[in-house]
Amino acid sequence: MVKFSKQLEDQLVPEWKDVYCNYKELKKDVKRIKQGHLQLNVGSMIDPATAGTADTALQRSMQEYTSLENNINGHFSHTSSSYNKKQLAGAAVLVDEHGSEVLETELMEPLGKAEPHKVFFNHLDAQLNKINRFYKLKETEYIAQARRLERQLLALFEVQEALVARQTSLLSSQSSSKSTDSHSSSYCADESLGGKFDYCMHANVASSSKKKMMKKKRSCTQKLELTLSRIDIKDMCRNDVQIADRPSWSRSQHKFDLSKRKKKINSCEKMLCTAFIEFYRGLGLLKSYSSLNMVAFAKILKKYDKVTKRNLAPMYIKEVECSYFASSDKVTELMIKVEEIFTKHFSDNDRRKAMTLLRPMQQDGNHTTTFFLGIFAGWTVALLIVFLLILLTQNDYRTTGGKGYMETVFRVFSTLGLLLLHMYMYGWNVYAWEKTRINYGFIFEFSPGTELHYREVLLICTALSSMLLGTMIVHIIASTKEAPNYDGSDWVPLSITLVFLVMLLIPVNIFYKSSRYFFLRCFRRIIFAPFYKVVLSDFFLGDQLTSQVVSFRNVQFMLCYFSGGYFQRRDESACSDNTMFKLLTYMFSLLPYWWRFLQCLRRWKDEGDKLSLYNAGKYMSAMVAVVLTLAYVSYNTSALLVLFLLSSCCATLYQLYWDVVVDWGLLQQNSKNPWLRDNLILKRKYLYYISMWVNVLLRSLVWILLFLPLNVIPGFSQPAWEVIFAALEVIRRGLWNFYRLENEHLNNVGNFRAVKTVPLPFQEFEGGML
């Protein structure tokens, strides 16, 4: 049976963790009370000579507990003249000067040895008051958000009416004075909740009666005035350009304009649909928050009664049930209203479809996933052993089939291997995030229910690893048999590369299509960085690409090697001796840093945060260092050596500072955890210090040695060294990923952000809405 503390840890909202009932602290208080009982009983058993005195003390103690039970009801006192006390059944609720109700339980004398009980109830009161304050605050926020969605939906209805009216007038040959309102919609609001809302759609409403109804309902809800003359369908989604009256348009021009306007309205409708889904999700989290805390109070009071052999739980539970977070039903009513609205206006009255969107099912790891993960993991290990044995024992391969292998085909296989290693590191990241309750799905803004868990990620990795290793073994055998012509063996690495690309791009709902397309959308926004708003998932993926510089250079080689037909004779020097190829090396090596540089500039433009400019400077210094490093490798002059060392040191120090201080939020001088930060998720603090030093070591070592020619071990060529150091950089990036998301998660916890902020299609201002 799972303990409740574990259940609470698994089910709570991670971003609201600090405002839940601190069950562990209350459990410690009950444990101290239990230890007091045991010490009293043991003392009376050890010293028979003082048994009578001990019995008297025990009797006195039991009288005090009885007095505690008899006096807990209704015995409270004023702690300040600023409180107004009102009596409730079994408790006193004090209303402070700000209007907030505070429950305070004061135990009457004799308290003597009942001090642990007093501490317990003080902590219990503090937890209850904390939960009430937070619940009321979030409920107020959601009611205000409901009002905003109310006005947004009304604006959508009115622009839809305007579009229908214009379409009707275009099709009708009659006079413009004839009204066409057969598809008109009207709105009605229920002001009993203040922010509770309801929408009614009525068909076949006359124009005059519709205007009267709308006027009446606008005054009822005190909404912002919105008139059709102030709405431009073209400036939906914040284009902010008002339309001007255009005389004497042709019929084709009208149709084209209406088509564009219809697309804008559909886009606005999708934005509102997403906003309602996130709003409903937030309401569900708040309702879950209330239910979990109610169970926590019941569990801890039951444990208290079990230890003390008293029956105080029912009396305190009554006060908990009367408290604001347990008695308020506004959230439940809002959820019902959202379900009705969403079913009617966004799901074509299909409730099943609506509830599927509002309450998506979470993907739980099943036994099938675990079974195939074990199968593919076993295959991967076995194929890796076979591959290594072939390399070490087959002399024919080393003398014939392996000619030029490291300079040509190895680049293809190593690129796929580095990508798989990055996926393995991401799988480890997901495992660590899940174990530490870091809400990575919310941070990356995955669609609810589509995020992959670590088992799914590792299943993909092991399946692709088995495929890659099997292909490499087949290629080695084929190369040995075909040497020295290599007529068809080098089609094998090209084929496996194309298979990987097809599995990524295939538009069929297999191989976790939602996750593949999420990756492709992020990658598209990275490529066109200046033209898209940058979100966390975009620049997080951009940072991953900066750790795959070797893969980018290998992709450049693959384009030359296969497109030029050099793979048919395994000509390793055809690309490396090409002048254009050498120039493209600079471009492909700089691409990841250039994309991140543009992302930082776009974030600075959108948010006005100078920190983004400083971050752009970091990537600019990296680009300068890469250019000088490649120039030194090509020309090998003393001046370039000095410039290479200076630029590399500056870029490395810049990146190290940014990693630890900005991205991880560590090295805070005034932190209660020396040179770390105040809030830490990992309990073992030494892991943070080790991680910082590992990051420094790998960042410095990899950056300096990644581009330099190394031939220390005979037979161990430059491409092999590049792959080794690139693999170390990928491992370092995996370490960076965990602490980067930990810091982001703690920032969300500090601001209690648990749902996405969805932009609304219509801009509001004091006098109305656009």
UniProtKB/TrEMBL annotation:
Residue ranges of domain EXS in the record: 576-770
Membrane topology of this protein: Multi-pass membrane protein
Ranges where the SPX domain occurs: 2-318
One Pfam short name: EXS
Organism the protein comes from: Sphagnum troendelagicum
Main location: membrane
Protein family (similarity comment): Belongs to the SYG1 (TC 2.A.94) family.
Alphabetically ordered keywords of this record: Cell membrane, Membrane, Phosphate transport, Transmembrane, Transmembrane helix, Transport
Protein function: May transport inorganic phosphate (Pi).
Record's protein name: Phosphate transporter PHO1
Domain of life of the source: Eukaryota
Protein localization: Cell membrane
Transmembrane domains' residue ranges: 371-392, 412-431, 457-479, 491-512, 579-596, 686-708
